[in-house]
Design brief:
Elements (H helix, E strand, L loop, with lengths): L1 E6 L3 H10 L1 E4 L2 E4 L4 H18 L3 E7 L7 E6 L5 E5 L2 E5 L4 H11 L1 H5 L4
Antiparallel strand pairs: 1-3, 1-4, 2-3, 4-5, 6-7
Length: 118
């Protein structure tokens, strides 16, 4: 099963995805038997349009027996998400934003903690 979720994208994305997948809810497209070649081509088109237009977000999820939890994810417009296996539990991991890094810096950077006046 291949699933693509779109948010706040141009109408061309909806038209294109509707031509090769079933729209089961607004912005949610599925295909029960999309092969690798078709999935790759669809993603290539979505990437090219997203690069040109640069708005909204797109998430592609598909069955991948070799990946944690048996599925893989590609994203555009949102922080990249990676599925990781931590002690038998599947978690999603994304990079910290600049704001999150700034908030954590005083707690984790000993040089910053030592420079504070008492």
């Amino acid at each position: 099963m291949t699933i693509i979720i779109t948010r706040q994208v141009a109408d061309r994305f909806r038209g294109f995805l509707s031509s090769c997948m079933l729209e089961i809810a607004p912005g949610v497209y599925t295909s029960p038997r999309m092969n690798v070649a078709v999935r790759t081509r669809v993603w290539t088109v979505l990437e090219a349009w997203f690069t040109a237009l640069g708005e909204g977000s797109i998430v592609l999820v598909w069955r991948d027996p070799k990946a944690p939890s048996g599925q893989s994810i590609l994203t555009l417009g949102t922080p990249p998400v990676e599925l990781v296996n931590v002690d038998g539990m599947i978690l999603s991991r994304r990079p910290l934003t600049q704001t999150e890094q700034t908030k954590l810096a005083p707690k984790t950077d000993p040089a910053v903690a030592e420079s504070k006046p008492d």
